[in-house]
Each structure stands twice: as structure tokens, then as C-alpha cells.
Amino acid sequence: MVNVMGKNNLSGRKYDAVVVGSGPNGFAAAIKLAKSGYSVLMLEAKNTIGGGMRSSDLTNSGCIHDVCSAVHPLGIASPFFTSLGLASYGLEWINPPIPLAHPLDDGTAVLLERSLDTTVKNLGADGRSYNKLIRPLVKNWDKLLPEILSPLHFPKHPLALGKFGFMAGQSAGYVIFKNFKTKQARTLFAGIVAHSKMPLDKPGSAAFGLLLGASGHVSGWPIAKGGSQNIAAALQKCFRSLGGELQTGMEIHSLDELPKSKVVLLDITQRQLANVAGTYLAGNYRQKLAQHRYGPGVFKMDWVLDGPIPWKSDDCLQAATIHIGGTFAEIAGAEDDVWHGQHPENPFVILAQPSLFDTTRAPGGKHTVGAYCHVPNGSTFDMSERIETQIERFAPGFRNRILSKSKMNTMAMEADNPNYIGGDIAAGVRNPLKLFLTPKPYKTPIKGVYVCSSSMPPGAGVHGMCGYHATKKAIREMF
């Protein structure tokens, strides 16, 4: 074993484990270790914990904005987070009446309702096909989700997982045109898939629509009361209650800076691993890490409004999440543009309006809104005009309600969170099946050092399962 933790610059103490990074996966790793009875030190570079779960007054208005993750379909459904009983540590989920609304140019909106039956009914001619596609996932959710959010393994429910895998491995475009004939159903599914940042004609892109769509019917698409920061706060309280230690403002540039421990878990991405591990990695391995392909970035905006967004469709006032992008063809075209290094004229915009359901976000009758669109990795192009034009298209008068706003391009996103290389909030875009079939996930060539970030299976999302599975592997191999 290489003793990479020999220089004890942080403390004279030894720990069973050190976790670097306080994002959802870093916390999952630290809590899993602490619950298993090991001494754990968690280190966070920023002065505020949470990584992608942080909230801040981005507009200098006294309002709360989520810096990155705002709505959490998999956060409330996460098998590991659910097992922690985070409500006892102060976390309160708010589920809007409707998980998702997607406005159309005719003034209507297609809805993902909590009720599968209601969604089926509202989709009219395509209701039967939607029911056939989604109901098996909803029915088998408790069996499927732990399987889906796991790396390669022998499944406990092979038949159910096999059926999901067959559908998930197809392109979203194929699934959409095979199953749906109406504009409404095609648009609804396309918008959900577009969260993936993958072109809709790529194999495996259907997985995102199936998983996120089914989650809306099972547990909704909730927000955290008071901001996503409160998810991190609850995880911190849980960790400390188990005896864990946490230090903020501790940026780690090298493994040599860490105190002695038997295990190190790193909530970082491939390029950062190449820098932090340095000479402990062989040259060809470092080169492979440096060549890791990061996916499209995001251009993020936040606003404070003097009232709710004036949507053409009142149904949009019942959902915290709004997909803005017009039809299937427009969404597919916009995401394909980004994939090929272009900035779409009419971007697909994912918008959150949490203050409609959480009055703690904004004082005095104000409203907070956050939105982002995908852009080429590392782009510094200002998409603010195009994003606001898209919103205005479905909510005439939106601009008239703006009191203040903030915008962050990909470089600002990376400066705020170093894991977001080039503004990529998902640590790379890969076919989900290839991600799940990674032969040796979590391990590095350095004994006792593991990666627990969303660059590992099962991938991006505030669910902590990457950290949980990485830690299970570390415990099995090192203790």
C-alpha cells in the first residue's frame, strides 16, 4: 500500500477514513462510514457545505436562490437518503400539486401529474401508450430503483430490471415515435429526457425519460423547504450525530495534505483526480483521466419578481418545474445544437419557481425563479436574452416583473463549484448503460483511495447513491 496519507498537515490525529467534498455523494460516503462505526473526517474547500445543494442570495435581494440543484425527484426517492430519516434532522420536502408543466404555444400546457391515471386521461389518444410504458415502472418502483441506482451486479429482480433495461437502452426519439402520435405526449417525454444533456437520438437517452417520468408518479418532483441548502444541513446534522468531524475552507491540492487514514473517498471528477493524486498515478492512467470527456455546460439565471410568472396557462402555476422549449422537434434540435458545439437560438430551458409553494424563499410578496439551458462545454456566450425570450414566449409580461437578476456562464459555474468542469454539472455525459457497466467503478490504482462523485455509477443527481456504493466497496476491501 502506498502511504499517501503520510504527511499529516491537518491534524495530529489518525482517522479510519477521510472524505473530500461535501456534496450529496461526499455526505453519503461519510455517513455510511460513520454509521458503520468508523472515525471520519470530512473536508470541504468552500466555507459553505453542500456542493450542488447550496443556496445563496445570488441577486443581493434578501431572497434565497438554489445555486444549482433546485428540484429533487431522486432526492426524496433515494433509498439511502430515505433510510436516514432526514425529517428528524430538519429536512422538509414540499411537493407541488403538479410535478411538471410544459407550456405550449396555443396557451395550454401538457402536465406530468402525480396521478398516473390522470396523466393517462389527459394525454388522450396517447394515454394508453403512456400507461403501457410507465405503469410497469411505477408498479415495480420499490424493486427497480435500488437496482437502477446500483453499479453492475447480479440483480435481485432480473425480470423487472431486464424489461427496464431493454426500453432504457433505446434512443428517446425511437421510444417517442414508436409509442406516441400526439404533440402533447411527444413533447412531455422529450422535455424530461432533455435533462440528460444527450441528443434525443442517442442510444440510452430513453432511460432518463423513463426514470424521471415514473418518479413523478411515485414520489413527485419536490423542493426542499427553505432551499436545497437545507438538504445539506440535514445531512450535516446526521453526520455529526454519528460522531463525524467536518472542516470547511479546506481546499485539497494533493493527497499528501491529508491526515493519516486507512481510506480516502474523493467527491471529485476525473481531471481533479489527476491533479490531486499526482505522481501516485502512472503516467498513462493520468493521461486517460485528463482525456475524460466532459459534457455540455449550463448557463444559469436567477430572478426576483414582483409577482408570479404570468403564464398563458394557469396550469403552470401548479408546478415548481416548468419545461420551456416548444415541441419535440424544437427540443431535439436545441439539444443537438449544443452537442455539436452550437448555441441554440431557441434553447430548451428548465425553470424552477419554488416561491409559489415555499414562502420562506422571498419576503414581501416577491417571487424567486431559477432557470438554465445547456450550452457547449466551457462556453462564455451570454444566453440571458435567449432564455428570457423563451420564457416571455409562454408568459408575456415576464420581463416587466423582474426586480433583480443574476446570471452565471459555464466558467462562473466552475468557479463556484470546481466539480463543474466547463459548466458540466453532471461530470460528463455517457450512455447510462455504459456508466452502469463500468468494470471497476469507484476504485483508483492507489490502494485505499476511491472516487465517490457523480462521475461514477449511477451518475448525476442528488441521491447520494454514488457515495453509498463507493463506500460499501471501500469498507469491503479495506476494513
Global geometry: globular
The CATH C-level name of the domain at 15-73 and 79-90 and 224-293 and 427-478 is Alpha Beta
* Sheet of most strands: 7 strands, mixed
How would you state the average pLDDT, rounded?
93
Q: Total number of helical segments?
A: 18
| CATH superfamily heading of the domain at 15-73 and 79-90 and 224-293 and 427-478 | FAD/NAD(P)-binding domain
Structural class: alpha/beta
Per CATH, the architecture of the domain at 15-73 and 79-90 and 224-293 and 427-478 is: 3-Layer(bba) Sandwich
Strand content: 15-25%
Indicate the radius of gyration in whole angstroms.
22 Å
Report how far the terminal alpha carbons are from each other.
14 Å
- Poorly predicted regions: 1-8
- Find the count of extended strands (DSSP E, 2+ residues): 16
Q: What is the CATH topology classification name of the domain at 15-73 and 79-90 and 224-293 and 427-478?
A: FAD/NAD(P)-binding domain
Proportion of residues in helical segments = 25-40%
Give, in spatial order, the strands making up the sheet with the most strands. Answer: 7-6-12-13-14-11-15
What does it look like?
With 479 residues, the chain is an alpha/beta fold. Among the domains are: 15-73 and 79-90 and 224-293 and 427-478, 3-Layer(bba) Sandwich (FAD/NAD(P)-binding domain), CATH 3.50.50; 115-219, no CATH class. Helix content is 36%, strand content 16%. Helix 9 (183-193) runs parallel beside helix 14 (328-339). The longest helix is centred in the C-terminal third of the chain and has 14 residues, at 465-478. The chain is globular, with a radius of gyration of 22 Å. The model is unreliable at 1-8 (pLDDT under 50).
